[in-house]
Write a structure and sequence with these properties.
The protein is an all-alpha fold. It has one domain: A middle domain of Talin 1 (Up-down Bundle), CATH 1.20.1420.30. The chain is globular. The two termini are 27 Å apart.
């Protein structure tokens, strides 16, 4: 239905849906921080589970609808392009946090675990691409492994949160994960949870509109599926992560900011599971273009740089940004240039 609109109305629908996603995500940040305290999950884990999953919903609908329509490249590049874009957002948030490098201040074991899990999940995707072209009931075995690995990662993150075997060195710039209100833990989580679910439904509806508009852009303007997926729909559906990350940094919820990005990226790897199930022409992983694999490699490199930054914990880098942030911006810029050149 969206694809049948005139070009001006199509662009308007795309823009309005993107704007609604951003506005809804601002409120979602405050609710996620509140739920982190009231459910005692902690900011880092809540960022990955609650905030990361909710703000990724519009993107997962875009990838699933793209795969259902038969465009594997669009579905895949939207998922992987979103991971690269969201990792870039941490570097932009680092500029906002003036006290020290964001990766230094938001030191938390759970974030390290989720970053490692993301690298594993992206590596499993590579195995699926270059492995045998098989599908059972239309689903590649690696999709099942991805889903099980994600659940295992959540369990490990929970164990690390409850019983960490090591803790980061505390400095003057390190932000501790503590409730803003001493009575916050004793308040009910029901109200914020219901409001959060309402926002999730709104984000999902907007994701459907954005996905249909992206498919129309490909058909109407003759744009490449990888270009639209990685640089248009992926960036628009990732804007919630930018907004929530900047808002979390301003609120001083640094673990929530970093955990929301890494956890959201880990959740985004599940886009491929749903997209593979929705793709009816065989294995999604063996219907990709070269540019799609390039974006996957970009996501791997950027996540590895981020993990290195979390471990190294540089206090101050060039200007207001850490060296890891500079490297992430450079890697992403190279990927964009390569995508534009290849069309």
């Amino acid at each position: 239905m969206i694809g049948a609109l005139s070009t001006p109305l199509l662009l308007l629908a795309f823009g309005v849906a993107g704007a609604v996603v951003v506005v809804a995500s601002v409120r979602a940040t405050a609710l996620a921080d509140m739920l982190a305290d009231r459910t005692r999950l902690g900011e880092a884990l809540a960022g990955g589970l609650i905030l990361g999953g909710a703000t990724s919903l519009s993107g997962i609908i875009v990838s699933t609808s793209g795969a259902w329509s038969g465009d594997a490249s669009f579905a895949f590049s939207n998922a992987i392009g979103g991971i690269a874009a969201q990792t870039l957002f941490l570097a932009l948030a680092d500029v906002l946090h003036r006290d020290a490098n964001l990766e230094h201040s938001a030191a938390q074991p759970e974030n390290l675990v989720q970053a490692v899990m993301l690298i594993i999940l992206l590596s499993l995707t590579l195995l699926g691409i270059f492995g045998p072209d098989v599908a059972v009931l239309g689903i590649h075995p690696v999709s099942v492994v991805l889903f099980l690995a994600y659940l295992t990662g959540l369990r490990i993150s929970g164990q690390v949160s409850e019983n960490p075997m090591w803790t980061p060195v505390q400095t003057h710039e390190t932000r501790r994960d503590e409730p803003e209100d001493s009575d916050e833990r004793h308040r009910s989580a029901k109200g914020p949870a219901l409001a959060f679910l309402g926002l999730v439904a709104l984000l999902g509806t907007c994701g459907l509109i954005i996905g249909q508009a992206g498919g129309a852009f490909i058909a109407r303007f003759g744009l490449g599926s990888s270009l639209v997926g990685a640089l248009i729909t992926a960036v628009v559906t990732s804007l919630p992560e930018l907004v929530t990350t900047l808002a979390a940094v301003r609120r001083g919820a640094l673990q929530l900011a970093v955990g929301g990005i890494i956890g959201g990226n880990t959740f985004d790897s599940l886009f491929l599971v749903f997209a593979d199930a929705a793709y009816r022409d065989g294995s999604l992983y063996h219907a990709l273009a070269r540019d799609d694999v390039y974006w996957l490699a970009t996501g791997l490199v950027m996540t590895s740089v981020l993990l290195a930054g979390l471990v190294f914990r540089q206090k101050h880098g060039p200007g207001r940004i850490g060296l890891d942030g500079v490297l992430m911006i450079g890697v992403y810029a190279c990927a964009v240039a390569a995508q534009v050149i290849s069309g």
